């Protein structure tokens, strides 16, 4: 045991210990320098605001900023943004990211997706309005005609043209309901009396 303690106090051991510490310090220094140079440590790029930019403009800007991009599936159409423009980005504008970082974009589609007109003929106006709202259509106007069923839907119009259940319309379209006013037409009364 005494030999071991004598060895720890010897000049040879202290030189070897000093060399090992020096090699360790140099190795750590080299590794840190290498990591700083390869990971651009401390160097950041500020993400530009791509909101409302077209995909072509976005590509040019993203290349100039030294970033990469990926376009995700289009979202629901947003009328506040131009068609085929950027409506969302991740990371957000102003974020600090490393060079060559991938930015994810959501693009505004060309218009509203189409929805199917539900079966609302011979349905009350109130129920028809609820069914239309459920699929994303709105009632712009209700026109009444002489028909026995009060507030019963008899026909549907879109932009002045008659449409039928099952037709496809862009979401948020405004349609007109033609409903009965509860009265029988004079022709129907005359026809019914002539049959008696």
From TrEMBL:
PROSITE patterns cross-referenced by the UniProt entry: PASTA (PS51178)
Domain PASTA positions: 42-109
Coiled coil start-end: none
Keywords: Membrane, Transmembrane, Transmembrane helix
Record carries keyword Cell cycle: no
Pfam families noted in UniProt: PASTA
InterPro entries listed in its UniProt record: PASTA_dom
Alphabetized SMART domains for the sequence: PASTA
TM annotation in the entry: 12-35
Name of the protein in its database record: PASTA domain-containing protein
Organism: Maribacter caenipelagi
